[in-house]
Structure formats: structure tokens, C-alpha cells
Specification:
Layout lengths: L3 H12 L11 H10 L5 H14 L3 H5 L3 H8 L6 H16 L8 H5 L6 H12 L8 H11 L8 H14 L5 H15 L17 H5 L16 E11 L2 E6 L10 E2 L2 E2 L5 H7 L2 E8 L3 E4 L4 E14 L8 E4 L1 H4 L6 H8 L2
Parallel strand pairs: 1-7
Antiparallel strand pairs: 1-2, 1-4, 2-3, 2-8, 5-7, 6-7
Helix pairs in contact: 1-11, 2-3, 2-8, 9-11
């Protein structure tokens, strides 16, 4: 498409976003924002980003912080592997790069939690590196603009989109060009209700010309979302509740949560297996939480702990008052359960 980059840069300078809190030259701030923005919208990210930078203003402060402190500030943002990877990457930069965030795109991509597009965005915004990006917004723009059929998650479609991204990359003005791609997808070429009349490429866009905005890009092939269920034990003793540290990997890895048992298990017997003699208090309102690949039905059950067995309360278990517990690094549904107490 003739003059694509020049037209995009001109549009971005006049109509793009220029007041986002991470639009700075500090590589650390840019990196944190790009990780938070993975699979999360700007409006959701901004308050988390501001709080995170206030607590961890530089890479050294993040690397030296305990993981619990990092996860606590991430709590509610979801996709917690991002926070663990961010923390691990900060430690890696401190150890391998003397605490200086690397400017080479290959070195950036080698850090935990950073893929090809995220590495390119960090290199572009922080160092002016000439590298193509292809996040979700950009995929949507290219699919509509050039009439690319198929689900972008398919390997062949993604490869075709990467070829487009590389071919369109200009030799100069990389920062406004990269920001322009993101802004176009976020503010005009939205997933639903795209604002085609305001788009600088409306006259050239295949989807606009053919009325295919709703079908491009193609949706992920539909599959029934599996349903799972669990019972969460709200063990109460002396005005406090029991939290358990989850394993470092897997769902909610590294967060504090409530003990669980299978739906068919007796909650009292499950508490006894944990080392606690307990009696039922009440069954609390159930709730549901949807992950990217399954839906979890949660049945909370409150139990009164009469006594602790010898050895109970080893590392990995924590008794806290509910008001203190909600400040811990908790999964969102667990926070809702405890807040309701």
C-alpha cells in the first residue's frame, strides 16, 4: 500500500495517544507496561502500572523485592505468570546485564515472559530499534486492511501477517509508527463497532470496502469451554482465616489461596487431613471464575477450627484476619470470598 507508514505516522501525530504514563524513554518503565498490556486493556492497566512503579521505581527495587510483594501488587490483573516472569527477568538483568536493561532485541527476547512482538515493542519505544510488532490490535488492523482470511492464531495466517509487518516497516520514525499501529487498533479499528469513517485507510481497506468488518479477523474456532469445580475451605479460628501458598507453577502459581478439596469430599474430613479439627459453620454463596481454557465453579464452605493438630501451620500456611488477608497476593475469586466475610 503506497505511503502506508507516512500516512500512519501523520495520523498518529494528530490523533494518536500521547499521554499514556509509560510513554517515556526509560526502558524499565516501557518493559513493565508492555508486560502488563499483554492480553489486558490500557484502561485496566493504568492504575496497576502507576501503583507498581510507585512501589518498584526501578529495576533493582523489583529484582530485590520478595515475590509475594510483586504478586500482591499484581493481584486482580490476572495472568499471574506475567508477574512471576517479570520478577525473574529483573533478577536476570541484574545478574547478567549489570542491572542495565539490554537494548538488543535478541537479548530482550531471551528474558522470561518476552516474546517476539513484545521484545520488538520494547526495543522500538525504549531504544528506537527498527523491529516489527504484531500484537492483537495489529493483527486485527492488518487482517481487515489487507483482507487476510483465517484465524490469526493459525501458524500459516500468523506467518503471513508477520511478512506484512516486516514489509511495511519504515526506515525511520519507528516510535510514532509503532505507536500508530497500536493506537489505530485500540481507538478506531476496534473489535466491535470500528470507527471506519475516521480511519485514514478507509478508502483502501478490504474489510471496509466489502463490509466484512465483523468477520475479519476470523474468530478462533469455537470449542465448548470445559467446566471444573472445586470446594474452597474457609477455615476460621480466633478471628482469623487460613491461607495456603499455591505451587509456583500452574493456575494462580505463587499466590495465597484457600485450601481446596474435591466437590465430592467431606469438608470436615478435608480439614482434618490438613491437620485441623473443624466443624461446619455455613455454606457461602458460590461463584464462578473463567480462565482462558476452562470455567471454574467454586463452592466456599466456612468451618470453625476447634483446635490445631501438632505441627499444623508449617511454612506455606498463614493465619490472617480477613481485613489483612484481602491485602495479600490473592486470586480475584478468593479475594471476593474473603471480602464477603
Amino acid at each position: 500500500m503506497a505511503g502506508f507508514a507516512d500516512r500512519l505516522v501523520a495520523w498518529q501525530r494528530q490523533h494518536g495517544r500521547h499521554d499514556l504514563p509509560w510513554q517515556v524513554s526509560d526502558p524499565y518503565a516501557v518493559w513493565v507496561s508492555e508486560i502488563m498490556l499483554q492480553q489486558t486493556q490500557v484502561d485496566t492497566v493504568i492504575p496497576y502500572y502507576v501503583r507498581f512503579l510507585a512501589r518498584f521505581p526501578d529495576l533493582a527495587s523489583l529484582a530485590e523485592a520478595p515475590e509475594d510483594a510483586v504478586l500482591a501488587l499484581w493481584s486482580g490483573l490476572g495472568y499471574y505468570a506475567r508477574a512471576r516472569n517479570l520478577h525473574a527477568a529483573a533478577k536476570r538483568v541484574l545478574a547478567d546485564h549489570g542491572g542495565v536493561f539490554p537494548g538488543d532485541v535478541a537479548a530482550i527476547a531471551a528474558l522470561p515472559g518476552i516474546g517476539r512482538s513484545t521484545a520488538a515493542a520494547i526495543a522500538a519505544f525504549a531504544f528506537g530499534g527498527r523491529h516489527a510488532i504484531l500484537d492483537g490490535n495489529v493483527k486485527r488492523v492488518f487482517c481487515r486492511l489487507f483482507g487476510v482470511d483465517g484465524w490469526p492464531g493459525e501458524k500459516a495466517v500468523e506467518t503471513a501477517l508477520w511478512h506484512l509487518a516486516e514489509a511495511l516497516l519504515p526506515e525511520r520514525e519507528i516510535v510514532p509508527y509503532t505507536q500508530g499501529l497500536m493506537d489505530l487498533g485500540a481507538t478506531l479499528c476496534r473489535r466491535s463497532r470500528p470507527d471506519c469513517p475516521c480511519c485514514p485507510f478507509a478508502d483502501d481497506c478490504v474489510a471496509c470496502r466489502d463490509g466484512r468488518q465483523a468477520e475479519l479477523p476470523a474468530a478462533r474456532p469455537r470449542k465448548g469451554l470445559p467446566e471444573r469445580s472445586t470446594v474452597m475451605l474457609v477455615l476460621r479460628h480466633g478471628g482469623e482465616i487460613l491461607l495456603e501458598k499455591r505451587p509456583p507453577s500452574g493456575i494462580w502459581g505463587g499466590l495465597w489461596s484457600l485450601p481446596e478439596c474435591a466437590p465430592g469430599d467431606d469438608p470436615v474430613a478435608a480439614a482434618r487431613r490438613l491437620g485441623y479439627s473443624a466443624e461446619p459453620l455455613a455454606e457461602l454463596p458460590g461463584l464462578s471464575h473463567t480462565f482462558s481454557h476452562f470455567r471454574l465453579a467454586i463452592r466456599p464452605v466456612a468451618l470453625a477450627v476447634a483446635r490445631r493438630a501438632p505441627g499444623a501451620g508449617e511454612p506455606g500456611a498463614l493465619w490472617l484476619a480477613p481485613a489483612d488477608a484481602v491485602q495479600a497476593a490473592l486470586p480475584t475469586p478468593v479475594r471476593r470470598i474473603i471480602a464477603a466475610l
